[in-house]
Amino acid sequence: MSFSGKILDWYHKNKRVLPWRKTTDPYKIWLSEIILQQTRVAQGTPYYLRFVETFPTVGDLANAKEEQVLKLWQGLGYYSRARNLHAAAKMVMGEYKGKFPDNYKKLLTLKGVGDYTASAISSICFNEPHAVVDGNVYRVLSRYYGIDIPINSTEGIKYFKSLAQKVMDPENIRDYNQAIMEFGAMQCSPKKPLCLLCPLNESCVALEKGLVDQLPVKLKKTKVSSRYFNYLIPIYKDAKNNKFTILQQRKGKGIWQNLWEFPLIESKASLELNDVIAGSNAVFDGAVVKDIHIYNDMDIVHKLSHQHLHTKFWIVDIEADLSNKIPVEKVTEFPVPVLIADFIKAFKF
């Protein structure tokens, strides 16, 4: 039996029952693929279901406010993908008159859609013979064929795409693409792959040569930088003892664009209380600060792909009324980074 035949045979016996496998609607397949680029199936499934429930059609998504889209995406990270998702939905409604593109080339014109996503949608929905290459596929192919070309190099990307095209089953491309990704996720997993029970074990080069733990090869990551965030959480009580605070929207390029956060002092190193007191006057534009105290003595280190955010939260009691204040019970309605969401969940306003 051929490589693709064994993969398909394994898939038909072991595939998981997943909500997006019950449809060939390109809108829903697209949603699932964009979400699953961010997270594992178990974590991504609730997001997929919420998106489909909230936005049953691409038109519903296109007509939504960006803030609503970002709120639903909250917790997945890489928020630019949520903005691209929203922009692509608008393109479908505008440039394609509400009909989702039905081939690989047209799919590539959508914001945020690259080779992998276009290949997945065109093969699953329209039976086009385009092989998918994601992290799971890289791992299966590099191990089975014993290839040590870095998968995140220009050469590696081209090589593995060409190889994937050669070994795919074009007659059963819809199932085959899903099969090889499933195989990589469940059988040929990153750690502790099930080699003894693998249908490919008799001809797997990595297994034969003891290279399973060494493949695939990746070039070293970009150097990680450190940033120091000091969030000031203002608390103002009115005459009726109602509590208010402030959230601000991040603008411009960089992390968390258009998400909301508490007033921020970014510094070159961790700040002490006196430093925060000195900086609070500018942050609150002269409002009378009654007291400031630290919420977490040790920095919370929030790790992003290329930077680590060393974060402290400072509770600020304000005497004077705040402009742009919001009731504290409303803070959960805003789309915020996970770092802020975790604080809101833990802090008792």
Coarse morphology = elongated
Provide the gyration radius in Å: 24 Å
Mean pLDDT: 94
Approximate strand percentage: 5-15%
The biggest beta sheet is recorded as:
7 strands, mixed
> What is the domain total for the residues?
2
Reported CATH architecture of the largest domain: Orthogonal Bundle
SSE class: alpha+beta
Determine the CATH topology of the largest domain.
Endonuclease III, domain 1
Overall strand count: 9
CATH class of the largest domain: Mainly Alpha
Low-confidence regions: none
Assign a percent range to the helix content.
40-55%
How many H/I helices?
A: 14
What is the chain-wise order of helices and strands? HHHHHHHHHHHHEEEEEHEEEEH
| The CATH fourth-level homologous superfamily of the largest domain | Hypothetical protein, domain 2
Terminal CA distance reads 63 Å
Describe this structure in words.
The strands form 2 sheets. Strands 1, 2, 5, 6, 7, 8 and 9 form a 7-stranded mixed β-sheet that branches. A two-stranded antiparallel ribbon has the order 3-4. The model has no long low-confidence stretch (mean pLDDT 94). Helix 2 runs antiparallel to helix 8. Helix content is 42%, strand content 14%. The chain contains 14 helices and 9 strands. It is elongated and about 75 Å long. Strand 7 and strand 8 form a beta hairpin. With 349 residues, it is an alpha+beta fold. The chain has 2 domains: 212 residues, Endonuclease III, domain 1; 122 residues, Alpha-Beta Complex (Nucleoside Triphosphate Pyrophosphohydrolase). It comes from Maribacter dokdonensis. Pfam families: HhH-GPD, NUDIX_4. Its EC number is 3.2.2.31.
